[in-house]
Each structure stands twice: as C-alpha cells, then as structure tokens.
Design goal:
Blueprint: H1 2-22, E1 36-40, E2 48-56, E3 62-69, E4 79-85, E5 96-99, E6 106-113, E7 119-126, E8 134-141, E9 154-157, H2 166-178, H3 184-196, H4 200-204, E10 207-208, E11 214-215, E12 221-227, E13 232-238, E14 246-247, E15 256-263, E16 269-275, E17 282-288, E18 299-304, E19 311-314, E20 320-324, E21 333-339, E22 348-354, E23 368-376, E24 382-389, E25 395-401, H5 403-406
Antiparallel strand pairs: 1-25, 2-3, 3-4, 4-5, 6-7, 7-8, 8-9, 10-12, 11-12, 12-13, 13-14, 15-16, 16-17, 17-18, 19-20, 20-21, 21-22, 23-24, 24-25
Helix pairs in contact: 2-3
Amino acid sequence: MKTDRLLVLGFVFFFLLLSCRAESGPGGRSAERPLFEAELLFPPEPVHNHSSSIVECSNGSLLVCWYRGSGERTADDVAVLGSRKEKNQKNWSRPFRMADTPRYPDTNPILFIDPQKKLWLIYSTVLDNQWQSALLKYKTSTNYLRPGPPLWSDGDLIHVTPDAAFAPQVERAAAAMADSLPSPKLKAELEGIRKRASNKLYQRIGWMPRVHMLALGPRHWILPLYSDGFDFSIMAITTDGGSTWEAGGPMIGMGNVQPSLVRKKDGTLAAYMRDNGPPPNRIPCSESKDEGRTWSEVRDLPIPNSGASIEIVSLRSGAWALAYNDLEEGRYRLAVALSEDEGRTWPWKRYVERDPTPAEDPKAFRGSYHYPSLLEASDGSIHLTYSYYPKEGQTIKHARFNEAWIRQAGRPDPSPK
C-alpha cells in the first residue's frame, strides 16, 4: 500500500511538473493568461492634460507625469503634474506638481530611472508660446519613493549643441528633397528649414523630448529629441551619466519627429517616429550603427500614422511592442502591436481604444486617444498611459495588459473605456 501511495504521489508530482513547464514562458515567467485592465488617473477636466510618461519604481509603484494647463500655445499657466499608484493598489494618488516655471509653459515631460536608480524628469520650458523657443531642462531625485512629488536634489538646462557638420547636412538633404515635394507651400517650408539650419540660436534651442530615454550602459544613455522649428529629430548622447551631452547627427526629413528608440540584437538602433509630413502618412524610420551618432536616410514604413506620437519598446521575451494610432487621419483608435522579427512584420494587433470610423457610423462621437507611453514592468506586464479625450473633457488613462492579450488578435475586442 505504501508503495502504491508513493507511485500515485510520484505521478501527481510528475504531471504537476509537466504542467508548470508547459506554462513556462519567455524568461522563465509563468505562462500568460490574457490580462487587460484600465482606469483613469483622475476624472476628465475642461483644461488641457497631455503627453504622459510612466516609470516603475524599485518598490513596484508606478509614477506618471504629464503637463496640464490652459494651452501652451496661448497661456503661461502650464505645469508638469504627477501621480502615483502604489503596488497592489487600485487607485492613483491625487495629482501633484512636479515642475512649474512661473509665467512660462512647462511641457513634454518624460521620466527615466537610470541604472543607478536615480529618477530623471526631463521637460521643455517654452519661452514665447512657440515650440521652437523651448529650453530643455531636467530635475533629478534619489528620494522619490515618498508620497507626493519627488524630493528634487538637482536640476539645470541640457545644452544640445549640433556640430559644424549640422548646417551642411541640412543643406544637402534639403537640396535632395526639394524636387520631390508636391506643393509650393512645402517647398517654402523646406527653404525656411534650410535657412534656420545655419542660425546658431535655432540650432541650440527648440529641442524637445517626448518618449523615454534608452540606456545602452550604466552611464551611456540616449535622449531622443525633436524640433518643431526643423521638423526633424536628433539624439542627445551622454557617456558620463548625464554630466555632459553631445548631439548626434540629424535625421532629416519633412516631419519625422518624436523618435522612439529600440535596439536590435546586433546592436543597431532603430528610431520609429511620428509623421508630420505630407501624405500618405506612415511611421518614418531611421537606423544607426554607431549608437546614435549618425543615421540612415529616413524611410516610411508601411504602418499608418495620423501625425500622432508613438512609442516602441523591446520586451524581455524578445518581441517588440508598438503603441500607435493606426490611422492616416484622426486619433480615435489606439492600437498595440507585436513583432517577433525586429519590426519586419507585425502579425498581432489589439485596440486599447477604438471608436467607429466615419464609414461605420457617420454620426458617432470620435474621441482622441493618443501620445502613448509604454513600459514593461518587472512582473512582465505591459503598462501604457496616454492622453484620453472623451466627450466629458481631458484626462490621462492607464492600461495594464500582457502579451497574451495582444496575441488574442482576431477575437472581439473588449472595447475598454
């Protein structure tokens, strides 16, 4: 009898072990069952709430920032706010102030926790309500796990100084693009960019962040930047943990802005960008073989973009996740897609938000769900914050999901609201 019990226990243990192995996923994580949950950080407001950024802190809490005010193009009451969600809690804290330059708009904030566990807040202060006048600023904190705003210990400007090759590079690119532009208006815009490229003031101000920094090493990081004055992108690179910065070469095009970086297995950097240029609107891409110092010619990918920000991240499973508005016009659909071949194909796509198209329902309300900030947390779940504009006003929304949920593409969407 004892032998029979031992045999039964042995079979039970064996099948449990097989079950655990069958459920073992990439990186040793448990197999994922589809997960999706979402909530607002705060109720919709009549004022502008926009451009969020999310990080996970070492204690498992989430910290989000965004900017809020009456409108940065016309008003000076715009400040950077933040909110926290403690681990295992359902609700976000009441918004608190993270940065506020009196009588100036503070905009486009991003958060970054460096390999030394220091928190960085990087943002732009706009001098005359025109984006091309922005100053690039930062604050740092080592005391940010406390309730409320981080206790800032340092802060200053980040000076972005393109080298002497910048103006000739823009000149050559402008000459190459001029004949292919379809309208006199675009040719005039290109001529303005060419003239500004030789102006030191335009070269050195107006650079703004939008998406997370990328750490290549303990003190080697890349800060993606773009300029409305030039309508293209550049990288700020530090190899000493943010003490000094150098400017990489420009990625020149007509409207390739707000770059998001992902690193391939061979070390190549790929920059996926928002398309502010002439139609058809597609996500532009450029690649760098030298860690962001020089970039390939900007090309359009076969992925729609409605002139709205995107973010791409490399997951620990090896897949890439891309959050974007998969439209050529409008921001009423927000999708997350997965690629297992470093961006060559994107076979899985799920909608985080999806309102009816005009063809589906001409009279339906179509909101705006855009400017995603994407993060893979330590537990393997994926977090997304974005500007959420329903009928009632404007707020920031947070969604938490996993790869298994995205891979359910083809099944009916839960239409989370």
